[in-house]
Design brief:
Elements lengths: L1 H16 L1 H24 L5 H35 L1 H7 L4 H33 L5 H13 L1 H31 L1
Helix pairs in contact: 1-5, 2-3, 2-5, 3-5, 3-6, 3-7, 5-6
Length: 178
């Protein structure tokens, strides 16, 4: 359990040390906030929640795609090529523990982002006085929570496409050697 926590913490620190991650996360969150404020200010009270949630979902989907492709490739795949994972395995950490600790570190950031976007959206809806807040909470919020399964699909596609690339690349090098 200690090794799980150490690997998890190390991967979270990789996020905080990477300037691209911090700038991208803050920029997309700021852009989402700005677009939502514009939607709530300039559109009628009947149309603004739907337009706002639609743009929020699109911007969040783009961010989640870029974040997952960048970080899954960098943490999971590059650690395997760089020898970090083999060092962890030699120290007695099992492969599923290594994988899930890295996977959970990436998911912690993305899930936190989705929850922050949801809280921002609900707060803006309250501040700008949406006509039917119950409609926003029960119907439109489903759109933001649909980002969770979308995020898993993006992560799975990225991970398995990178794994296929590694297998193909290793077979190619083996063929050159023979």
């Amino acid at each position: 359990m200690r090794s799980f926590y150490v690997i998890y913490k190390n991967n979270l620190q990789k996020f905080y040390r990477n300037k691209f991650n911090i700038i991208a996360c803050c920029a997309v969150f700021g852009l989402t906030l700005f677009v939502n404020i514009l939607m709530f200010l300039f559109f009628t009270k009947m149309h603004m929640p739907v337009l706002s949630i639609s743009l929020t979902i699109v911007l969040s989907s783009i961010f989640l795609t870029i974040y997952n492709v960048n970080n899954i490739t960098r943490t999971i795949i590059s650690d395997k090529h760089g020898g970090v994972e083999s060092i962890q395995s030699r120290r007695g950490v099992k492969d599923p523990v290594i994988f899930f600790s890295k996977f959970l570190a990436i998911k912690t950031i993305t899930w936190s982002y989705i929850i922050l976007v949801y809280l921002m959206y609900i707060s803006l809806a309250e501040i700008f006085g949406v006509l039917n807040i119950y409609y926003v909470l029960t119907t439109l919020s489903v759109g933001i929570f649909a980002l969770f399964p979308l995020e898993f699909v993006i992560s799975g596609m990225t991970y398995f496409s990178q794994q296929q690339h590694i297998v193909t690349k290793n077979q190619f090098h083996l063929h050159e050697f023979l």
